[in-house]
Amino acid sequence: MTTAMPRRMGVAILAGLALALLAPAVSPNRGGEEKPAVRVYLPSDKEAGKKYADYAARWWQWAVAQPADKNPVVDMTGELAGVGQSGPVWFLAGTFGGPPVKRTCTVPAGKELFFPVLNYVASIPLNGKTEKDLRAKLASWKATPAELELTIDGRKVPDLKKHFAESALFTFVGPEKGEIHPAFAGKHEAIAFGYWVLLAPLPPGRHTIHFRGRLNTADPNDLFETEVTYNLTVAAK
Prior knowledge:
seven-stranded mixed beta sheet; 2 helices
């Protein structure tokens, strides 16, 4: 994930859409030809906003459901990137913190890509007893200073603070043994929120996505940082 969740909370751990374009600079591939700009959907667009909210919840359900030996979030190489993937969107995982991770994987053609630069999940009973409690936690987390970085094929994506999105209340179920993290064991009602990015399908070929997020809290026990580089090959149709 870019899975950012403060340690103390147990998990630290993109027809008619308005588009934002990456910086106009071009990034040549090995053959020397210019790669086209990547389309980045914004949560402020009505239809894209619905996807952000829905995908944020589905991303957490996907990330938490996988056992430790098959979980893309703890995967260091990218070999598990395809575990549990289906439908029109392909999720990219962040980390649970620690050193930077580099992953290499192949993505099917025609898939939207959705991933968090820095994200959080608040759940009942871990973070409160009601949805109101969870929304209060969301407000506190959003007010915390954060560092956000994202480049796609060498282009920097600007204004990542505009990519904040939150889900409706949803249910996730983690492995009972809590092998991913004790906070994820069993069934939870939860809200997912954070700084996410939704990309239109990338053209076939090689692409590099690099993202980093850091939550700067006053309490060193709650500091969280994640950094991931994906070397992707989008399959030909």
